[in-house]
Amino acid sequence: MNQENNRRRRNYMLRREPDATPIPRRTRTIGMAVSIGAVALATLIVVGSLYNIQIRNGEMFTRYASDQQLLDTTIQATRGEIYDATGKVLASTSVVWDIWCDPSYSSALYDSQTITSTDPETGEEVESTAHNLNAAACAEISRELTLRLLSGDGVSLDKVDTTSDAYVAQYEKIYNALSKIDSSYQVLAEKVNNAVKESIESYVSDRNAKKGTGRLSISSSRTYQRNYPYGAFAASVLGFTNADGEGFYGLEKSYNDVLAGTDGRTVTIRNARGNAIADSGAVTYDAKDGNSLILTLDSTIQEVVERYLNEAIAANTVENRGCAIVMDVKTGGILAMASKPDFDPNNPNDYTANQAYLEELVRAEPELYGIYLKNEDGSYVTDEEGNKILDPEADYSGYFRDIMWKNKNITELYYPGSVFKVITAAMGLDSGNATYNTTFNCSGAYAVAKETYHCAGRHSHGVQNLALALQNSCNIYFIQLGQRIGVQSFYQYFKAFGFTEQTGVDLPNETAYMQYYTDKNMGEVELASSAFGQSMAVTPLQVCTAIAASVNGGYLVTPHVVDQIVDANGNVVEQIGANVRRQVISESASETIRQIMEYEVGDGTTQVGGYRAYVAGYRIGGKSGTSELLNMDRRADGDYKKAASFVAVLPADDPEILVYVMLDDPNNANSDYSSVLAAPVVGNIISEIAPYLGLATDGIDRSGTTVKVPNLIGTEWSNAQVSLNIRGLKHQLVESEADNTAAPVTWQYPTAGSTVPSGTTVYLYTDGSGGKTTEVPDLTGKSADFARQMLLAAGLNCTVEGNAGGLVQSQSAAPGSSVQLGTIVTITCG
User: Element (H or E) spanning 487, and its range?
Assistant: First the structure.
């Protein structure tokens, strides 16, 4: 009975409620399959993602993770310096600072206001904070920062002119930046020196320490600045760097990889805010600073060259700039190279100092720089004669910068004119078609094919040898010599002298564009005009290297500006020596060239072709060249524009240096000739650099000779100096409060007609007529040499009587007395 009841009870418990519907087996099966599939799909997705993250793109995601976790900071390498041949720094890098502010975090700049509003969705009240600029505080802070920035040293705040345009501009810049109170980063100043940066930091610190003034968030970032201490000096050679510190022009560009060095890195862990945290595992890769350059350029010689070149450009109203080179003829080392006017590499985009000159230049050379009016369809607007019309509102700023930056010595072609006659003479001598005594007749005119050629001034020189023809710069002689050389030989020599290729100078932007006739297209007329330098367009540096080869024994050398590359410790990494490309002419032919070039300059006693380049005491060879610019529009008088150049070598018997000057389109009312325009510039340069370099003199003892001082009053000062050079007198231009440019001499001392010892310095004035005085030093007991140096330093001349090896016993002018600059003081030694 009990067993039956238990069985019934179990059956009852297993039985469903009558209204419950059983789940079909098929549904249960599908449900199970879907569940398993979903799990499998999720597993597949997870596995796929893991595969993608860890295996397929593992390297990329690892890098992403590292980027998020690691802070990789660049350690900037310091750019190498550039030194002249004597060790003077011409380009250096200094640490400077960029000053920036976080206005949004600077509570000193704004007033905070709590605003209560209702959330439209929830209806709840919400509080927010609004910032309103505190104009008074912003003005006060802007004023303090502006004073420090303009002070230069962060201390001399009271010396800042608060009424100047500079102050107003700087103040407005700072105020506008600080007033952007919603911004977290505003640059206030760039490339500030350390003294100013520390002054600003001190001001911010002191202000933040005061209660109730709010917080001022100003920070600084270290950066570097390239400095050129001499400003617009050797600018076209040095070049400059761009905003990123990369070489953009000149040596800065051609040696950028050498100067730049290699940046370093510091890798460390950073926090969620991106800031570095203490990490013993931080890795630092030190920066490798750039190497430095030691140049062949000598800043003393460069200064002399630039001074006289600037004067010549101004005095002769040179329209299209001028250039000059001083080069070692045996090694190719460039001692000086200038193109004027140029620019200040500290601010290369600023052309305002030369804007008037540049505007005149582009107006005078429309075929090169003209910007013409155009119609809407792009065609040019023309006048009644069909000529294009210049756009009066054109922007020439790009041209202005390009002109200033160009190194005229290597980027522009010109017709060398009669300077090239030296090369034609070298061709004739080396080929055996001429000797020193080879003669041709000049009757004043010479016909070649359908062309008739004349000498300058239509002179008839008669029968001449090679030296006399060079001195007379006779076109007809050299046309006949060119005919004797012949087309094939002429072109082969022209090529050998380097005129069909770049010189290879270690400067960028040397033009690869050449204009010349080859042996395939050179006819009779082309040969004739090429023989006297009026058909082939070349660069000034090509001319210099060819002339150097003509006088140095016949060797064509590669010109260079860099002498050594040194590391940060001064160790020589690379020595740039002479690179002889080939021998062009023989030693004997070169010797004859030296003789005829010296004949061209003479000894100053006769007014031969290049006598204005003569400096007494030195043997100088030279050649002038006045070429017609056939590729340019003619001048208003109908004549061709000219290029006036002169090249000199010295000592003439064994040349060491070459001095070259070219004035492109001078507009001197008195003369077009280079012997009048360019030769004096070369002579004045030689008068200062030859003694400086210690070049060998002519060996003539002039210690006992006297010279009569010429009357120089009324003569333009640089030409006055030429008269002194020729007579064996030295010169010194006294600085004037007025502009000395092209100024006439108003006073001289010693005065005109005075008889003075050879070598006496004559002081020239261009302002006033009374001269300046100096105090005579006490020379008693000094050696003669030391006493002479003391007098020279005081601006006085010196003569020695008695035993020159003894000590000074007496002097003609009393110690402490006041005398004219240039006074001759006689010392008696015993």
Answer: helix 487-496
Enter the DSSP assignment of 471. H
Specify the pTM.
Answer: 0.85
pLDDT in tens, 780-793: 999 999 999 999 99
DSSP readout, 783-805? BHHHHHHHHHHTT-EEEEEE-TT
Residue 368 confidence (pLDDT)? 85
Can you read off the two tokens belonging to residue 432? 């055996």
- Bridge partner residues of 660 (DSSP): 325, 647
- Tell me the C-alpha distance between 302 and 350, whole Å: 23
**Tokens 């090679």 sit on residue:** 466
Nearest CA to 258 among 29, 81, 99, 32? 81
Block residue for tokens 């510091």:
266
pLDDT at 14 > cutoff 50:
no
**Rg (Cα) of the chain, in Å, rounded?**
40
Residue 621: phi and psi, rounded to 5, are -110, 150
Instruction: Determine the average pLDDT of the residues in 516-540.
Output: 95
Question: Where are the extended beta strands (E) located within 576-652?
Answer: 580-583, 621-628, 642-650
Termini Cα distance of the chain: 165
Show Cβ contacts of residue 431 under 8 Å, excluding neighbours closer than 6 positions.
485, 489, 493
Q: Given a cut of 60, is residue 373 above it in pLDDT?
A: yes
**Angle (CA) 542 548 554, round 5°:** 110
Please tell me the distance from the alpha carbon of residue 788 to that of residue 827, in angstroms, as a whole number.
Answer: 9
Answer yes or no: are the C-beta atoms of 99 and 192 closer than 8 Å: yes
* pLDDT reading at 284 higher than 90: no
User: Within a 10 A sphere around the Cβ of 239, how many other Cβ atoms?
Assistant: 27
Q: What are the DSSP calls for 400-461, one per residue?
A: HHHHHH--HHHH--B--GGGGHHHHHHHHHHHTS--TT--EEE-SEEEETTEEEE-GGG---
pLDDT, one tens digit per residue, over 590-640 is: 999 999 999 999 988 888 889 999 999 999 999 999 998 877 777 777 788
What are 51-97's pLDDT values in tens digits? 776 777 766 666 655 555 655 666 678 899 999 999 999 999 998 99
Angstrom distance (rounded) from CA 657 to CA 334 = 10
